[in-house]
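User: I'm designing a mutation panel for Mce-associated membrane protein and want to avoid disrupting the core. Could you give me a predicted structure to guide residue selection? Please restate the sequence first so the numbering is unambiguous.

Assistant: Good idea. Sequence first, for numbering, then the predicted structure tokens:
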Amino acid sequence: MPGKGDKTDIAEPDAADTTAPDESGAVDGQQQPDAALPDTADSAVADEDTEEPEAVVPQRKSAKAEVGRRVSVSLRTLLVSMLVTALLASVGTMTWLYVGEKAKLDRQGRQAADNSHAERVALDYAVDAAKIDTKNLDAWKKNLVKGTTPELREKLNSAAASMEQILAPLQWNSTAIPLAAKVRSNTNGIYIVDTFVGVETKTVQAPEGLQSTATYSITIDSNHDWQISEVGGIGAVVGQK
């Protein structure tokens, strides 16, 4: 034990051994945690939360592309449908016009053919009726009623008997050639045809012969086998002297 007069040396800490933290808060030889830097694991989690998974992005792009293709196909289909509809409408209109025009032309063609037939029937009859030879009046009488209706035939037979009394004394001899025939009217298939016949007539009073034009108005019923139902102008031939 030390005595009272002895001094006990108390070792003071060496200044060199005393370590003070630097401005960064780190003590020599020790790494202090940096409070300013975020934790790496927490940062990765935050990045995962904010960024979409890489597999989702292509899927969304693919979905958008599919929608775009569908819209494009729909528009194209609509345009094609509209064009087809317009084409069908145009074809339908043209067909309707063609059918209508064809029907009109067919009617006109039939009407022209019927008119021509009526004119031929009338002109043939008129020529035969204008040919008179007192040496063979029976042939004339036969031609006079040829192709006529029963009612008209009866009238013509009666008229021929009366005319025979005039033709025989005059020694009537006439020849005829067709000139023209024209349909005057057509009402429900009843044709009235004006015919013109060139006639040369010789009689005891005019042995040199006389030239004349005989006009006949002939009514033809196309509804009854084109029979002649009325004749006007027969007396005009007999009136020539």
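For picking mutation sites, this is relevant: Residues 48-241 form a domain with the Nuclear Transport Factor 2; Chain: A, fold (CATH 3.10.450). The two ends are 204 Å apart (CA to CA).
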